[in-house]
Design brief:
single chain; about 650 residues; alpha+beta; Helix Hairpins; D-amino Acid Aminotransferase, Chain A, domain 1; OB fold (Dihydrolipoamide Acetyltransferase, E2P); seven-stranded antiparallel sheet; five-stranded mixed sheet; 25 helices; 24 strands; about 35% helix; about 20% strand
Length: about 650
């Protein structure tokens, strides 16, 4: 391949990876792979002098896909040039003092304080334009909403979710497939919620790493003086240390020794000139400022032998490959397993049992395979599911090949149903983790959903099981009994009907006035009458209730439950009206609160504007948002909260 063609290929690959990471909160390649390809592109562009307009070396970020309001930053937020060499850092300092700090791995947020009060919070976004998340920032765990400084203050920092909180949140999710993949993705989704109640529950922390000049000469003189000023105002700032060419190597080692014990995610360090005036005098390139540089860890690699690949069935039918290799020491810990993610990566690495592979820890934490030195390619993709022995199938989605088990009676899927049934939005039964449910299924304690309400007969056997005891048993039974008093929405959702989420279950129960017999006997056309349920979903619901065994299980289950009907004495003055809600709210804490009021008064709330929409609620009535434009094109009235309350 000629160099021009390789440059084009690298630009496309890296832009796709950046789009997935920044715009869709998912990863399609490791940082290790991205950095290697990026460095190759930089070298080729330098060698050839050819730089395309869409190259990631000259563009910052991607456009944002969100319903949150957008706003232009007062000053552009540029990416940093980077290196993996401490010698480069020494040379970069040019004999000057610098400040070395953590490069945290979360979501960059800009806070603006006016008259001592938090007035605005905006995400980094493209670097030029970000999303306004002010309501969410107000519920961050550690930022002051009022500070003793009355002039305008613009602070840049990183919103992160700590590892300890990440683990607690994941521990509440029974279904393995539903667990969050890493703290960064969870933080990004938490910060950009349309409902700040969710943000508050996620315990998001903010660490300041910079601020725009205050106009106070003493404060604006150095990076250290800005950090001290922010700390005095009550902000948590990133850990930082003053460095020079003589001590920077030792200070980098200090940070490296602490990365594995930190409670927050990071993906490197940032080095800045302490003297701010000097840093500004250096100017900037098209993409990078010259007053700061990022240091990425040179990932420690080790050679080892691939001994096996375990194929682990998930609750959705996806079968995940996991590499098993001779234990090696990486970043001070012993590592012998690494996820391979999918069949495409297995084939790309040409894996085979007995191959010599290189492994590393991405960001010094997550074990990954970086290279296969042997490339025998003799690894066989299983034709049978390890859980049920049924035939597997290969699926291809967006050029990624994955292995699936299509057997609906696969034990792995049975566990999925139980974990879904006991989950928070369904029956909310604490103490029944996926591992516990799997043990109960294996022991024969449960085979149908209603068996969960008859566990008392197995008390003597449960209390002597490994990891259990009388207290564990009592807690499980107490939680099971608490779940007996529930509403029909939770039950319908808990059945695991395909495409019926909690919101759809609620629509069904409301439409049929919580009459279970009416729900069971309804036909597809009856379900399709419900706004928000299309023909495909309606047919799926009818098919579920046409199965005699499903009806039998449901009736046995209902014998164990006390279905509560919430009385609604509100006037049904919004009956027949459909609302769409967009933008930030002032009179209601969040959209759920407004939605509940509309539904309690007989109205409906939809997610998008259509010809059936009665009103679009948007406090920015004159904005040029896509929903406002759609509403105007369909002659749908756009009203503010004030207008709505007058209804």
């Amino acid at each position: 391949m000629d160099k021009t063609a390789r440059i084009k290929e690298l630009v496309n690959i890296l832009n796709e990876a950046s789009k997935a990471y920044y715009q869709e909160d998912r990863e399609i390649m490791s940082n290790f792979e991205y950095d290697a390809l990026y460095d190759e592109l930089v070298a080729l562009e330098k060698e050839t002098g050819l730089v395309f307009s869409n190259s990631p070396t000259v563009n910052v970020g991607y456009e944002i896909l969100s319903e949150l309001p957008k706003e232009k930053h007062a000053a552009p937020m540029l990416s940093l040039d980077k290196t993996k060499s401490v010698d480069d850092l020494k040379e970069w300092l040019k004999g000057k003092d610098g400040v070395l700090s953590w490069k945290m791995d979360g979501l960059t947020v800009v806070l603006t304080y006016q008259n001592g009060v938090l007035a605005k919070a905006v995400t980094r976004g493209t670097g030029e334009i970000g999303e306004v998340i002010t309501n969410n920032a107000k519920v961050f765990a550690n930022i002051p909403n009022k500070i003793p400084f009355n002039d305008e203050l613009v602070i840049r920092g990183e919103a992160v979710i700590k590892y300890s909180d990440f683990e607690k949140i994941n521990a509440t999710i029974a279904d393995v497939d539903a667990k969050y993949k890493n703290p960064r993705n969870l933080c990004s989704g938490s910060v950009r919620q349309l409902n700040n109640e969710i943000t508050a529950k996620r315990n998001v922390h903010f660490f300041a790493f910079n601020m725009l000049d205050t106009g106070v000469a003493k404060v604006d003189a150095t990076v250290n003086s800005k950090f001290d000023f922010l700390a005095d105002l009550g902000f948590e700032v990133v850990e930082h240390r003053t460095v020079n060419p003589d001590n920077i190597e030792d200070e980098v080692k200090y940070f490296a020794e602490n990365i594995t014990t930190n409670d927050f995610p990071s993906d490197g360090l940032v080095l800045s000139f302490d003297d701010i005036a000097y840093g500004k005098s250096l100017g900037r390139t098209a993409k990078f400022p010259r007053d700061s540089i990022a240091f990425k860890w040179a990932d420690e690699e080790a050679e080892t032998i691939l001994r096996n690949v375990e194929w682990s069935p998930s609750r959705t039918g996806l079968i995940n490959p996991v590499a098993i290799f001779d234990a090696v020491s990486l970043e001070g810990t012993s590592v012998s397993r690494a996820s391979i993610h999918n069949v495409s990566i297995v084939k790309q690495l040409k894996l085979g049992i007995g191959d010599t592979i290189k492994v590393y820890k991405a960001n010094m934490i997550i074990p990954q395979i970086s290279e296969n030195l042997t490339m025998s390619g003799n690894l066989e993709i299983p034709k049978e599911c390890p859980a049920c022995g049924g035939n597997t199938i290969l699926k291809r989605d967006n050029d990624v090949e994955t292995l699936y088990c299509p057997n609906e009676d696969c034990p792995a899927k049975a566990i999925k149903l139980f974990t879904h049934f006991v989950s928070r939005n369904a029956m909310n039964i604490d103490g029944l983790s996926e591992a516990t449910l799997e043990k109960f299924i294996d022991k024969g304690f449960i085979s149908e959903l209603y068996d969960l309400y008859n566990l008392e007969q197995y008390r003597d056997e449960i209390v002597v099981m490994e990891g259990f005891g009388a207290k564990s048993y009592d807690n499980i039974i107490a939680s099971v009994n608490t779940s007996r008093n529930t509403d029909l929405t939770r039950v319908i959702y808990g059945l695991g009907i395909f495409n019926v989420g909690h919101a759809t279950a609620k629509l069904i129960c409301k439409h049929f006035k919580n009459d279970i017999e009416a729900i069971i006997s309804a036909k597809a056309e009856d379900y399709a009458e419900i706004d928000g349920i299309g023909e495909v979903i309606a047919e799926g619901i009818e098919e579920y209730f046409s199965d005699a065994n499903n009806i039998r299980v449901l009736r046995e289950l209902l014998k164990e439950l006390n279905i509560l009907i919430e009385e609604n004495n509100m006037e049904q003055d919004l009956e027949g009206l459909t609302f769409v809600i967009t933008g930030s709210l002032e009179h209601f804490a969040n959209r759920e609160e407004l939605k509940k009021l509309i539904e309690d008064r007989g109205g409906k709330v939809a997610g998008s504007v259509s010809a059936k929409t009665s009103y679009l609620i948007n406090n920015d009535v004159t904005s040029g948002s896509s929903k406002n434009k759609k509403a105007k094109s369909l002659n749908v009235p756009i009203i503010s909260e004030e207008d709505f309350l007058k209804l």
